[in-house]
């Protein structure tokens, strides 16, 4: 069971990854962590994103929310937060700088929020998170290993905060949808480096009353108007009015690019 749900935006992925790695380094088994940006802890390829997320929120014992300015503009993140409250899932909200707890309180309500502002606040955050993680997993988590993980977190925190994306970053999540015709709509693209090449992850929706046995997709990478690489993949068994996640993979690692274009090459 994935007991701890890390809720975050793609723009805050470096920080979310740091939290996920710190939990594991501190003694939380990977099977207890749901972190959507990593394949080993996220949504399996071919699964319906909304259904899978709903199930994960419902089964979570603790939701760790990285609340940034971007988080507050993302409907999916706010739905995860609201879903946790509605289902009585314990939450652990964290204000991501430069956002302050008072800023969050004025936007979505006044509740206890942890800070990443200085070392003492971070250590206090992890002291409480240690106890909450034990409650969520039902496991005893050793203090020595946890303390070493917190020390590593503090060392890496400045670079993780500096690496966060902005809405203008071409690799940041794109919430707008792309209509490919024939009732197929893709959205929520994320570019990440995989084990074998550069990956484009996203969601594909079939808006028609007919199912699709297989949909073949590709993503083209551009730099200064020139095509510098392609990633490809498929989505199988896409039912009527169904949404599934996809992962498109290139044969090698794509260098820095300006933009991507996702297209449906064929379907049957």
TrEMBL record:
Q: Which domain of life is it from?
A: Bacteria
TIR domain location is: 4-125
Identify the stretch(es) annotated as Disordered.
163-184
The record, for Pfam families, names:
TIR_2
UniProt cross-references to Gene3D superfamilies, sorted A to Z = Toll/interleukin-1 receptor homology (TIR) domain (3.40.50.10140)
Return the protein name: TIR domain-containing protein
Per the record, the GO terms for biological process are: signal transduction
- Bias kind Basic and acidic residues: ranges: 165-182
